[in-house]
Predict the structure.
Amino acid sequence: MDYEVEAYDFTKIIVKEEWGNDNFSIKTIGEIYSNQNNGKLEIKAKTTNNYKLYLNDIEYSFSDEILIENLNAGNYKFCISVPNNCYESCFNLEIKKALTISGKVAVKSNKASISMKTGTAPYSVSINGSFVMNSNLNNFEVDVNPGDKLEVFSSKKCEGFISKQIEKNDKLVVYPNPSSNNISLSFIENNTPYIIYDLLGNVLDLGTYKKLYYRCF
């Protein structure tokens, strides 16, 4: 007589009904400082047992609660099991990146226009290391000079700051050029030598710059 036997592999049967996912209170704490791998995972069990947790190929043991620290920002999947009890429950979670300050600085005519994209107001502005102003706005302006170092700080130190070096215009500015009447010469640095030629190559004037001035030729 022939018999048909259906076989089961009981080692692969996972019984989730015994505790269920609601047996665990799971809390994630995102990064506080950017790229510092300081995210955290906190798990508390309603029922005490000998739990095993597998995360990033590392096994953790706990009975009622556990805190896992130094996690990178990103998405994770982990499972909690009870050895010799055919129990396993799996979860997906995200460790969020730290918020960092970001924005755009545009400089024109000794004015820096600042547009904040992310960060926490009020923003603190300093020039060359000295405090200048606070602003609760996302768009504001501040007076600057060539060579200044402009810094904008979030009200939360962990969000960092943005920095902008105001470029120097080390070149001579002549306007209008060419000209048959008055011309204006503008320099950034004092004691800058200059020579002015006409279109035929003749020297019209030469000297050393002391301050902004106008000459007629």
